[in-house]
């Protein structure tokens, strides 16, 4: 469901929380600190949900591969593109005595050789070479390939499911989200910037930091706030719209149309041009026009829009703006440790001015996320103290509430079918 007019001054505001059928009560905080809850997340959420592992452009040609470590599932996942072009995933584990087979991050190889005793596998997982095979007992190579992992691709995004036989398909899992965001134009000709961090806080705390803009004026006064709030029209950086899509959710961020770079920000003053939506703007081109026209993007089609934040359960965000798009992966390492990966994809610059704007945008990102990450360890400490049993969420924080309710359903459900109800 889409509800527009999130900013107070835009007129009658409807509640995102009520429209999504969510409770308005305080929300328990045990999911951030309880060891038992964490073990249930490991088993019942990450062990059963479809998990993002990469994008198809990481497998540019036949026999390309990359390895993705999924610590929460204790899995090393080898993702390959076989000679027929099919994307597949396998446990990166040798059938002989369990050594990891591939020990680099990515590349192109027709064959993978385990370094322990030289067993060799094809890119499609088949075992093709066993030194001194005659000295084994009835070894059937056909039965000893790499163990496959269920794999699905949606709009170029690769997902895996760690269940041997997934209870639901990727399509069912994505549900209305998959339909709503199908066809959003992703240019493949982007430059990629990765910012990652490991820190001591529960994985959902950093996820929560990107689920709402209520914190923007307080935590980001010198970086984000001037562009994402307006002293008269949207003082508290309220979202423009909010949606839930089954397990998944999205909100649209306001962009201050009156934003002007401060006098001491000289590069930004030369580069800044707000003509395609907020301060993350790009030059107008076909891709930008198609992005803005897509019905799921800025669904209420507000002119003061800057970006859409979309959250795919349980730990993956895809965010869209006219200045490119970015993804977040929020990987739990333990109950109170997280590996967070931000991948920013910036379109190739179409002018010198645009290039400068993008460079400034990328540099600004690093400052902003540092402000968010540093705060997470403080929240973890606060919650661990046991001083508070609940957190109190306002309407702009509906996505945190939605995540908490969805997570609790998955943690409590015996089957995925029950969790999906
Ligand atoms: S463990 Fe891989 S060849 Fe022995
Ligand atoms: Fe933030």
TrEMBL record:
Keyword Metal-binding recorded: yes
Residue ranges of domain Rieske in the record: 50-160
Protein's recorded name: Aromatic ring-hydroxylating dioxygenase subunit alpha
Cofactors, names only: Fe cation
Example GO molecular function: 2 iron, 2 sulfur cluster binding
Keyword Iron: yes
Superkingdom of the source species: Bacteria
Key words of the record: 2Fe-2S, Dioxygenase, Iron, Iron-sulfur, Metal-binding, Oxidoreductase
Pfam families referenced in this protein's UniProt entry, alphabetically: Rieske, Ring_hydroxyl_A
UniProt-listed SUPFAM superfamilies: Bet v1-like, ISP domain
Similarity field: Belongs to the bacterial ring-hydroxylating dioxygenase alpha subunit family.
Naturally occurring in which organism (per UniProt): Noviherbaspirillum sedimenti
